[in-house]
Amino acid sequence: MVVASEKTLDRVFYALSDPSRRKMLQALAADGYQVKDLAKSFPFSKAATSKHLNVLEEAGLIEKTRKGREVFCSINPSTLQHVEEWVKFYRQFWDQQLDNLETFLSENPKNSRK
Questions:
Q1: Residue range(s) defining the domain that contains residue 66
Q2: Which pTM value belongs to this model?
Q3: Structural domains counted in the chain
């Protein structure tokens, strides 16, 4: 299985574990935002918004850019590919397990009736 380092996956899954951060990421996927404008969309302080954004940035899920005094955020979708690779491995694993079960049941019809 070729995936990102465990540390990278840990950061991404931690960042995605919070519903507010998932909503922020979803909002940023639609369009980039200034931090102050994004903060208005959530029921917590600008400081709390900044903390959430820092977690997303440390996970590599967003990028911040400065233009003068303004800070803009945009999504970095390439980081989600690490999660996709991790999930793909387990999807293939379970597909194989279900195929094996189907084969077993078709070869042993008496066992499937119990």
A1: 6-112
A2: 0.74
A3: 1
